[in-house]
Each structure stands twice: as structure tokens, then as C-alpha cells.
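A note from the maintainers: we've had questions about how concatenated examples are separated. There is no special marker in the raw files; a new sequence line simply starts the next protein. For clarity in this README we add a label.
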Amino acid sequence: MMIDSNPPLLHHYQALLRKSDKLHQHANNNNNDRTFEIHIDPIVDECELPLIDLSGLESCNATERVACTAAICKAASEWGFFQVVNHGINTELLGNMKEEQIKLFKVPFEEKVTSGILHNPYRWGNPTATRSNQFSWSEAFHIPLTRIADAASWGEFTALREAINEFAPAMLKVSRLLASILAENLGYPNDAIEKLCDASTSFMRLNHYPSCPKSKDEIFGLIPHTDSDFLTILYQDQVGGLLLMKDSKWVAVKPNPDALIVNIGDLFQAWSNDVYKSVEHKVVANEKMDRYSIAYFLCPSHSTIINGYMKPSLYRKFTFGEYRHQIQEDVKKIGHKIGLPRFLL
């Protein structure tokens, strides 16, 4: 008997689909309300994100250093997403991370759910989904970086722990570098981000998107959302599937094997008074191939107060903990995140 490592995504999705159909039918019988209709926007175009060579920051030429900094700030403002090359993380380490990540996801599903590895950070689908268009065809391990040192919680995955122990500090270094440049551009001290965000407050998410028998226009790999942190750095394979909202339409991001993807989070948008953009993005499921990615989330402590750098501020003051709590409440009540609009003045 073959032991399946993938979660029962199709079973859960079909149950939600039946529920959605019933709700849709009921809504149509009452005032022709289309609230429950399932609709995933088609891909309009494929784009290449702004590509920034970080070696320019170390150039002996002052003009090149300034141009590199300006390119980072422009991309954060106009796109909210960009790619970086020559980021200092070697390809051997990236390849090792992917290899160990795949081994983790190949563990039988029941073992992932019940083993307690890393104090139960395993998630799949969307436990709060009430309709099929709130469901994500994926599984993930959410790993607070404070747990890397806890050797006992890694079980048989000591090689993964060793890889993350090298990978996480490298990602922290890149994320702090970029966030510090963006903060300085707003007038903050160059150590502002370093004081707010470190390894004890940030986390990683290992993502796996199993191949999906449904059409990519029918189901999400990851539902549309914005990130709730300051900055996210993504290492992905070459399967593709990441889409972002640009000029009011979805565009597909063309994978670049040499680049890391960087995107602005909600906290940076609020902190910058909307100078930088936290852009909605999603992942579409692939019918033939599994997709893997690793996201590093640069976060502050839950007590950190977020307040716009300009006056008048567009948002009221809030703590990161308050923001996270509001998101969780929204997801429980309505099935999705509302985010920053909740905090507009």
C-alpha cells in the first residue's frame, strides 16, 4: 500500500465546493445575490520584476551605489515587488535548503500532522475556509527562528536544522540590508530596522504546492493576500505560479534561477505612509508539477508600535500584535484578511 505524503486536499476542496454551490444556489434564489460565485481572474500577462544587482551597493563608484539604492526604493514604491541578484547567499546553500525541504514534505501526511516536529508548525489547506474560493492547495511549515536552537524538536531532520541554521542568518542579513535602505530613504536612522527586527521576532515558512488535478483557473495554490510583516524574501523553484496585482490586473512573475524575490509587507506600507506598497499576490496551482518555495518574513516584536513617518499619518497608531490579532479575527469571521484598511484614519 502506497503511503501518501500529501494532505487530503482534493477531498476537502470538494466538500467546500459542494457547500459553495449550495450557498450560491440559495443566494440566487434570494435577490440574485452573486456573493458566493467562484471566480478566479485569468492570467493577463507575464512580467519580469525589476531586477537589482546588489553588488552595486559595494561599488567603488559612488554614482553606482546611489543608483542601486534609488532602484531599490523606486521598485518598492512603484511595484512593491522586485528581484535581487548577487545577494550573497550561495547557490549550494540554496540547493541544500530545497533538497532538505523536499525530504520534510515527503514524510507521510499522518506523521506530519501527529509527530509534533518543531512543536506542530504544520499547516495545510485553510482550516478557516467556508467556501472553495478561500481554499489554498498547499501545505507549509511555519518555523519561528527561535526554535532552530531547540535540537530535540527536530527529530530525524537534523540535516534540515543545520541547513536552516546557515540559511536563516543569511536571509536576515539580506532582508535587514534592504529594509535599512528603504528606511533611510524615509528619513529613519540607518539602525532603525536593526533595532526593530531580528531573528527572535522573524520566521520562515517552507511551502509545498502539490500538483493539482483541477484547472489553475479554478483553484488557488495560495489565496490572494498581502504579507503582514515589514519585508518578505522568497526563494522559489522554477515551476512558476506566483502572481501579483499590477495596475489593477494580475500578472505572472517569470522565475529567475539566480534571483531572490523581495516584497513589501503591510507594516512597511503603514510605516512609510503609503510611499512603499504592500501588493496583493497569490499562487496558482500547477496541474502537472509540484512547486516549492521558502519565505523569510522580517517582523518586529508584537509590542512594536507602527506609526507613519509623515504627518498627517494615513493610519492610526497600532502595535504589530494588535494588527495580527485583527487579521485573525477577520479570518475567523469572514474567511479572509482585511488588513490595513481597518487602520485607516
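[label: protein 2]
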Amino acid sequence: MERGLSEKYTDKISPVGAHFDHMLKLGAKPGLIQPHLNNMTSEVVKLYAYAAREYMEKYPHTKLEDFVKIAYKNHKQSVNNPKASISKEIPEATISSKLMLCEPITFWMSAPVADGGACAIVCSEEFVIKNNLQNRAVEIVAQNMVTDLPTSFGRSYMDLSGAGMAKLAAQKCFDESGLSSSDVDVLEVHDCFSCNELFMYEAMQLASEGRGSDLLHSGKWCKNSQGGEQFKLGGRWVVNPSGGLESKGHPIGATGLAQCAELVSQIRGESDKRQVDGARVAMQHNFGIGGAAVVTMYKKYEPVNNVAQARL
């Protein structure tokens, strides 16, 4: 990866140009937010900063401290992830004070662009049984991608940054799987900035609209059976046990599969100090400006009454 975000093929229509142009139409100030950031990086930070401001104006009980708490949670959980680019606890005071990129987003609330790779082996149920992999198999029970909607280019920075797409993709997954957020044990969401994780609490139906910060206030730190510390939102859900993009780093393109790998490891019970005890159902949210949101639900593979065996 290069330093920051960039576009290689300037002879083609930019996949994000319309989004950045619309941001200006909504009233965003043009130009770089920081002299050391290139244009694309600056525009992406600006988009989420304006989305965070919109959210805070609409729901004034949400404060800067809530975004700080999310970043703190993710960095603290990263200490159990040896593969994280930044694997250390960052004090809340440091998160809130170090380099305001574009209010309210600070340096430590942002995901660093990083090198990295991940892969997933996707196979049929027949292959699983034939190779005696039932004990390690994880089933994709639902997956939906939603691309830019008419509302994406409406009057909301939040919708321009993908919140509406994520909400629709999550609802489709719940409808297809017959599951709900109460069935989910662990989530990996696209915390390119900590404010986007807060948006996803609501899009994934962990909280009602405008009440995402309540999960932080009612949450608590707990030790798992491996001795690792995890924060349970609302006393129920563990989000980004890997440390999230803010800690793992964000190798554009590989990020989604890294989330998948983490959740497969969780369902298999192989996550060591990151392990969410008893994890059987997992949920993933990934996003790319330009624009597409993908939500996936996984669960531990369970043949139903040996029907799958009989088919063979």
C-alpha cells in the first residue's frame, strides 16, 4: 500500500468523484484538512467528520467522548492480536487530544493504511463432509451487498458515507437467515473511523436509531476464559475483538477477508485471548466508498438431522 489513499488510473472516471462532489453540494468546505494529507485521504476523512457532526447535531446526547471510547475499546482489544499493525492500549486522553484531523476525528480514531493479506477457502457442503471437516466448517448463512442508493446522494453525509446501505444489507441478512441481532455473539465492523462504528451499532440493529452511544454507557469490560479483556456493548455484544481497522490497519481490498478470518477463528474457538466465549453466530460489515456495503452472517456448521450426510 502507498502512504494514504490514492487513485492510480486517472484516465478513467473516478469511482468516488461523484461522492466528493456531492459532499461540496451539501456544504462541506473544499481543500485539504491537513497539509500532510493528500487530496483523497483528506476528502475521506472530511466525509466521515461531517457525518459525525450530522449525527451529533441530530442526537445531541452523543458527545466526542463516545467516539473516544470506541477508539479506546478497539486499541485496548488489539493488545490480544499479534497481527495488528498497532497492538497497544492508547489512553483516552491521548486519543482525544492527538492531532485533530477534521473535527471531531482525531489521529487515533482513524484506521491506518497498512500492508496485509487474507484469504478464505469457500467450499460446498459436500466437500466439507467428504473431507471430514465438519468440526471446523463455518457456514455463511446470509450475505448481501447494497450499492449506492438514491438516498446516498440526498441531504445526509451519513447516507453518503454508507450508513443507509449498511442498514439495508443487514436487514436483508436478518430476513434471509431468520436470525436477529439478539442471536449474534460477535461482530467485526468497518471502523475506518470510530464514528462509523457507532453508526454501525444502529445499522446492525444492536441499538435503535440515535441510541448507539447507550451501548457504550451500559457496556462493561469482562475477562474471557483465556484471560483476555473484552468490552461487551450493552453487556451483550463484543465488537471488533481483533482491534478493528483502527488497530489492525486497513489494507484496502484485504480488509473484508481479514474480518472474515477473525470471525471464522472466533466461531472455531481458536482466537486465544481474543476469544468471545461461546461464539456461535457472527456478523460482519465491510464498506467501500464508491459505493458498496457488504454484510455477512456466519454460524458454526450444523448438519440438520444428517440430511446432508444422506445426500452423499
